[in-house]
Design brief:
Shape: globular
CATH class of the largest domain: Alpha Beta
Structural class: alpha/beta
CATH architecture of the largest domain: 3-Layer(aba) Sandwich
Number of strands: 23
Number of domains: 3
């Protein structure tokens, strides 16, 4: 007779989570679920809350302030562990659940695993309409949790306890699959959470989940070799899939043996040392002119583990119109994009086989040397931006340079929305990189530019600091963002302070949504509703502003307030003090600095945004569309 254990639905779910294990890149076995972020309400406090309390020592629960913020922290935790560990986030029904939808979008766009446990209304419908229930006139089965469906890789509403037996293996599959990784949403009606069932004891036996490394199809690989062998100017584009596969060393080996220049996307950043002779720089709209020049000149592009989003391809104007694409990706959905020759497989396994199959083939003489030449020109440009006098206050390039210069190989830098990701992607210089079997070293970067979610830069470092406390105890997380992100979602800075997870937050006060103001005025429109000075209200004259230093201090953080008009050395000293304070106090330190809203690092690429015929930017828009159409045809 099969052994059974009588548990509530919530208890069974939680005990299953405790039993799951994950294998890191170095073979170390760790818990698959590192913890839970939770805000309790009537929809989850007695069912799931009680079950979590029973296993608090094995599966820690961390209290958040905002459901979106704590779910974003869970997303960042997944990124910081190279998708090998997962955090869950739980909320009550109604507004609490809906607050997590944005975070699900971030996880979905960036292919990052997170488990969202959303409370739901009663399946029995006895008390309907229950508090926070949104009634649908034509569908009584619909709840607000159905809003998760477009942004979930796996969605299920558990209406009977025994349904867990079928759905939990799928939950584990999605969270650990390199092609399907993304958000899993389980809607948990509060009456079902506390319903008991005799679950088979085998469900709770420890299980190790190893991320599979599918090998490429033999014929597809051979065809890719044929395409590459005809190339005179091949270019290797690194995406986030290279990081998650642990394939940076294999990329470098292939590039060196065959003399192929390498550029990287925002998700693939910091995998190669900046000074390597084959590194051409960061690619795309917010990248570098060096990488973009190489991309335009390439006759074959070998893209590895990238979604090829518009910021990478310059809205599909960054490559020559007759370029041939070979795309290595674990997800066939991505591999076939834009008619590329698809090689579906794990990046590390595929590159090893591809390298061997290419034999002694090398790119044409002189092409490899061009990578260092072009990058050298870009470096000189960034040096001028970093070192030059800033007549109107600090520049973004200077802020990035200060953080870059102070960072160590074990550090971690994070950015998301606005102009900061461009400054980090285009201006950051990765030092020596050690490609051991563990999580990537070399001042690793997390640029959430898949969804470009404001507020990720404040909640995200909480999750990243939590993850890297174990893997990189000597390192420090630094997050860079603008005042707009702070105003949107500053609440989780208190969560990090309260829970004792230190990081440095560099708040660049540019007096508004400066990067959108740049887009607006750069196309010939008048500044409107982006900078505080061109928004409606008497405060536009400067009389109403936020004291960010006081606000940060009130949230439990230590603060370094760099005064207006301060220079580069004052910023450098403040950041170095902040690093030390974060280590000494085990809480976040906020560095507030005033940055000129119009001092940007430009890569010279085109990005498609709709431009009305009445604006001066219309001619450039039409020209860009013509180039795009030529490529697509």
């Amino acid at each position: 007779m099969t052994d059974t254990v009588r548990l509530t639905t919530a208890q069974a779910l939680v005990r299953w989570m405790v039993a799951q294990r994950s294998e890191l890149l170095d073979g170390t076995v760790v818990p698959l679920f590192a913890g839970v972020f939770g805000i309790f309400g009537h929809g989850n406090v007695l069912g799931l809350g009680t079950a979590l309390h029973e296993v608090a020592d094995e599966l820690p629960t961390w209290r958040g302030q905002n459901e979106q913020g704590m779910a974003l922290a869970a997303v960042a935790h997944a990124r910081a562990t190279d998708r090998r560990q997962v955090m869950a986030a739980t909320s009550s029904i109604g507004p609490g659940a809906l607050n997590m939808v944005t975070a699900a979008g971030v996880a979905h766009a960036n292919r990052l695993p997170v488990l969202l446990l959303a409370g739901d209304t009663f399946t029995g419908r006895g008390p309907d309409p229950v508090l926070q229930q949104v009634e649908h006139f034509g569908d009584p089965t619909a709840t607000v949790n159905d809003a998760f469906r477009p942004v979930a890789r796996w969605f299920d509403r558990i209406t009977r306890p025994e349904q867990l037996l079928g759905t939990l293996p799928q939950v584990a599959r999605v969270l650990t699959d390199p092609a399907d990784a993304g958000p899993v949403v389980l809607a948990l009606p509060q009456d079902v959470q506390v319903e008991e069932h005799d679950f088979p004891a085998a469900l709770f036996e420890p299980r190790v989940h190893r991320v599979p490394r599918p090998r490429p199809d033999t014929a597809a690989l051979a065809e890719a070799v044929d395409v590459l062998r005809t190339a005179e100017r091949p270019l290797l584009v690194l995406g986030g899939g290279v990081r998650y596969s642990g394939a940076a060393a294999e990329v470098l080996a292939l590039a060196e043996r065959h003399d192929v220049p390498v550029v990287d996307t925002v998700a693939g950043r910091t995998l190669l040392p900046h000074t390597h002779r084959l590194y051409g720089g960061p690619l795309g709209i917010v990248g570098s002119t060096s990488a973009n020049v190489l991309a335009e000149a390439a006759d074959v592009v070998l893209a590895v583990g990238t979604r090829l989003q518009d910021f990478t391809t310059s809205s599909w104007t960054g490559f020559a119109h007759d370029v041939r694409l070979v795309h290595v990706n674990a997800a066939r959905f991505d591999a076939v994009k834009r008619g590329a020759h698809a090689v579906v497989g794990d990046a590390r396994a595929t590159l090893t086989e591809l390298d061997a199959a290419l034999g002694d083939w090398q790119a044409a003489g002189g092409w490899a040397a061009r990578a260092a030449e072009e990058r050298g020109t870009w470096d000189e440009h960034v040096d001028r931006l970093r070192q030059g006098a800033a007549p109107h206050g600090l520049s973004y390039a200077q802020v990035v340079g200060v953080v870059n210069d102070a960072s160590t190989p074990d550090d971690y830098v994070l950015g998301a929305s606005g102009g900061i990701p461009g400054e980090l992607h285009g201006g950051w210089r990765t030092g020596d990189v050690k490609h051991d079997a563990g999580p990537t070293s070399g001042a690793t970067m997390d640029l959430e530019y898949g969804f470009s979610c404001m507020g990720y830069e404040i909640a995200g470092p909480w999750g990243a600091a939590m993850a890297r406390r174990t893997t990189h105890p000597e390192g420090l997380v630094t997050s860079l963002f603008g005042d707009g992100s702070w105003m949107l979602l500053s609440s989780e800075i208190f969560s990090a302070a309260f829970s004792g997870h230190p990081f440095v937050a560099v708040l660049c006060d540019n007096d508004g949504y400066a990067v959108i103001h740049r887009l607006q005025t750069g196309q010939g429109a008048e500044g409107f509703n982006n900078l505080l000075s061109d928004a409606r209200g008497p405060g536009a004259d400067g009389s109403v502003r936020v004291d960010f230093a006081a606000h940060a201090a009130a949230m439990g953080c230590a603060v370094e307030d760099v005064p207006a008009g301060a220079g580069l050395e004052e910023l450098r000293a403040a950041y170095l003090r902040a690093r030390q304070t974060a280590r000494d106090t085990s809480r976040p330190v906020v560095v507030v600095c005033r940055v000129h809203p119009g001092s940007w690092t430009e890569a010279g690429a085109w990005w498609e945004t709709g431009v009305p015929a009445s604006l001066s930017g219309r001619d450039a828009y039409v020209e860009g569309k013509d180039r795009q159409v030529r490529w697509l045809s």
